[in-house]
Design a protein that fits this description.
By secondary structure, this protein is mostly helical. The protein is built from two helices and no strands. The longest helix has 30 residues. It is rod-shaped and about 85 Å long. The model has no long low-confidence stretch (mean pLDDT 84).
Length: 87
């Protein structure tokens, strides 16, 4: 076996260099990640590839930024002077 982290060859169950268990199934990249994946439980998210988790984090941060900008817009709209309907 070859360790997927450090590349050490000729191993059985545990890498002699990095002490990683080689019998664990490694996550693979998904074709796409959608924002709804955020609602999945931790057990399922722990099976995601690191890159997929980073993409998911970027999507969540983008949505949070949109919500924050909308909140600021509504807050500013409440402070602005009102225009009468007659005008």
């Amino acid at each position: 076996m070859i360790c997927s982290y450090c590349g050490t060859k000729g191993l059985e169950d545990i890498c002699s260099f990095c002490r990683d268990n080689l019998n664990i199934k490694r996550p693979t990249l998904k074709e796409f990640v959608v924002l709804e994946d955020v609602e999945k439980p931790f057990n399922e998210l722990s099976c995601f590839h690191t890159y997929d988790l980073l993409v998911l984090l970027r999507l969540v941060r983008k949505e949070r930024a949109k919500a924050y900008d909308l909140m600021l817009t509504l807050k500013k709209a409440g402070k602005s002077p009102q225009i009468e309907e007659a005008m």
